[in-house]
Amino acid sequence: SDHMENICGYLMKYTNLVTGWQYRYFVLNNDAGLLEYFVNEQSRHLKPRGTLQLAGAVISPSDEDSHTFTVNAASGEQYKLRATDAKERQHWVSRLQICTQHHTEAIGKNNPPLKSRSFSLASQGSANSPGVQRRPSQNAVSFFNVGHHRLPTGKRVPIMQPDHLVDVREMMSQAEGQQRDLIRSIECLPASGHLTSLDQDLLMLKATSMATMNCLNDCFHILQLQHASQQKGSLPAGTTISWLEPKISLANHFKNGAAQNFPAEINKPASVREEQSIAEPCQLTREPEEINPDDELEDICDDKEDDLGAVEEQRSVILHLLSQLKLGMDLTRVVLPTFILEKRSLLEMYADFMSHPDLFVAITNGSSPEERMIRFVEYYLTSFHEGRKGAIAKKPYNPIIGETFHCSWRMPKSSVATDAGTNSSAHCPSEQVALPKDPEGQAELDCYTVKFVAEQVSHHPPVSGFYAECVERNMCVNAHVWTKSKFLGMSIGVTMVGEGVLHLLEHGEEYTFSLPCAYARSILTVPWVELGGKVNINCAKTGYSASINFHTKPFYGGKLHRVTGEVKQNMTNTVVCRVQGEWNSVLEFTYSNGETKYVDLTKLSVTRKRVRPLEKQGPFESRRLWQHVTESLRDGDIDKATEHKRALEERQRNEERLRAETETPWCTKYFLKDGDGWVYHKPLWKTASAAQTQQTDSN
């Protein structure tokens, strides 16, 4: 009791992927067993913005860093908090743990556990029996009868004894058995008729019952830990109680809860055996390869992802997958079913963001720092529409470590907007010039070439590096992205952690930028993509910056894919341009002189990328690496695509295991580690500087 003091102060609270971290004023009320927070200290006399009951809560220091910790209430609500330093975190954690233990023990003494509980599954007979026949009033609850037995009045148990945990374990085992019977009963129903095994209500019942059992097992695990702490004393500082992993391997459930049986090694197609037998990447040449743009041909692939295809047919697999996931669960290591995949790698998706290279090259043509920043914002906002392949939310292949992708774009110099010396002409809509049918026939001097290379530099965490340059315009962009995906209920959120830098060497300017979060919504019906979050673009040399907000659709009303932003001069805090509209439709730019410009993204000309034919690509280049998966998806053969994908992933795991056993570090091919980021091994700002130095020496 000497240590049960009321404490208060500012902590950072994580709200969501869009809002991020915010400072809030927290108050620990030991007498009431409450953790409350307010917007600031001045509003402390008002009603709290949020309150957590600490009885039964779990206080967990995070292993992310030395400042973060979480408060997991018994109600399921969670606060993710961050202190200013490790010492302050330890102070809050220890006081919260003492308060939690005190109020948890008090409730345990005053509220004894239920003595017994019985579960019985409704009878499962033929389609005409009451147990399976559909009625308007029937729902998932009618499959279970739950009976509670009251304790005799006046009889109280001071704390939960070991035999009570045994009773709970027995009831859990009984419930697990009945849940398995329920799933078996559903899966044994006929595939057609009045009530089938693919009935949407039964599939939802199957998914929610499995999720419920997983949750109960997690709660039982926490009870065991708390009982152990009561036997040995309080939990030691720094103890973390983590949620259990799914009890069933996700990779083994592709067809309505049944394991997918792959053919034996001897029966595997030659392409699968080839995928598994490719030598360890580090044993292949890891020397950077110079790609000749003349070897590249205009891309003729046009794999739009507008067809739901197997997504509609495999609804049961999606429901089964959801039953294995928990809110906030990291999906990085979760093996997702093949039918939700796009027919391209994530590395190629980054390349498709460059599908308007004329707008990219036009940035450096701006006559002033203000104009160049506005042009960069225009290019940035037009890149996301073409980066998506259709309206349906599908997932690109996860690149394997060492995978690379190369391509280039050629465009006539006449298609690139130039500066005519006046602001009004600079704000005219981008010219939409069709490329000639035979770009190879053009004189090289009449074209600009933008070259692109991407590499998967890390597997855990999954980090990609990509680089693009236009030597003729003396400009390049370098970026690294770590994709972190989380399960959010009926949607999946992907955070793009990392940074990009655009270098305009002609002007000596560097523009740093970040990427928005992406969300796959309505994953049980027709999945669709939206972007969310705030991104910033900054140029330290010129003092110009841009703030762009990608707005997610509110629950009621509102528009889809809305984006707003402004460009300003930091020294004077003057807004020089405002932008609003939809990132996949029409954007409206309003300038400080009152002029307005509209950009219709659906009508912008798209320059096709140029890619080497498969026979000229290396074994770890994206299209050759995934060619059998892509061909199988095009043919609609999901089982075959799954087999090829599984062979690639298994090979990657074996290689990773071998490197760990031999303590062999992974060696990248095109990108070098630079602090927390990755930089292309031969960037234009280095080669241009070296060439200039050499020319100076020769003179």
Automatic annotation (TrEMBL):
Pfam family, one: PH
BP term (GO), one: lipid transport
A single cellular component GO annotation: membrane
Subcellular locations according to the entry: Endomembrane system; Endosome; Golgi apparatus
Keyword line: Acetylation, Endosome, Golgi apparatus, Lipid transport, Lipid-binding, Membrane, Transport
Record bears the keyword Acetylation: yes
All copies of domain PH, residue ranges: 4-101
Molecular-function annotations in GO: sterol binding
Keyword field contains Cytoplasm: no
Positions of the UniProt region annotated as Disordered: 104-137, 637-658
Function according to Swiss-Prot or TrEMBL: Plays a role in regulating ADIPOQ and FABP4 levels in differentiating adipocytes and is also involved in regulation of adipocyte triglyceride storage. Weakly binds 25-hydroxycholesterol. Interacts with OSBPL9 to function as lipid transfer proteins.
Family, per entry: Belongs to the OSBP family.
SUBUNIT field: Heterodimer with OSBPL9.
Protein name per its UniProtKB record: Oxysterol-binding protein
Originating species: Loxia leucoptera (White-winged crossbill)
